[in-house]
């Protein structure tokens, strides 16, 4: 049975909306041609790339170089979606920890100074093999303290954002809110905290606005 995480769920326009980047930028990152859609693991790698570029100002040239090195060194098709490589970054490079040492993926083996991506990478859940299962997207720009109320899981809601632990699509919550229902009423219906409903609506309406912009 084919792994659902490798199924092409996300057209570029939707993936770009979820990652909060222009579609043209995403096409360059993944060299997408024609009508090809991204899979969940590519979406997760796009999330990691966006964090590296936004929070650490790494150039796409260095990131591509690092990914190429990691693919050759680990044999993994989606290295940025793997746990256990110990990804870290500073403003000039991307690193990963192997055999207790800090290795520079961009410079192919050079020891380097740490700046940990831990707060962001902790928003990803992995399976027993270390491959990403689901992630909790940043719903408040790129603040690492964004609540983990919303999840993207290929096994839930066809891989679209939903309320963590409930499997309720954020698009459905936002639609009911725009139709006039209150935060409190929605929270009672879905048996969750009002703050979770607020986060779902915040995330979905922001995504819709970005899609229109």
Key phrases:
single chain; 213 residues; alpha+beta; Arc Repressor Mutant, subunit A; 8 helices
Structural commentary:
The strands form three sheets. A three-stranded antiparallel β-sheet has the order 1-2-3, covered by helices on one side. Helix 1 crosses helix 8 (194-212). Strand 4 and strand 5 (132-135) form a beta hairpin. With 213 residues, the chain is an alpha+beta fold. The chain has helices spanning 12-19, 23-30, 40-56, 60-74, 118-121, 170-178, 183-190, 194-212, and strands at 88-89, 94-98, 101-104, 124-126, 132-135, 150-151, 162-163, 168-169. The longest helix is centred in the last third of the chain and has 19 residues, at 194-212.
Q: Main beta sheet, described?
A: 3 strands, antiparallel
Shape estimate: elongated
Q: Which structural class is indicated by helix and strand composition? A: alpha+beta
N-to-C SSE string, H for helix and E for strand: HHHHEEEHEEEEEHHH
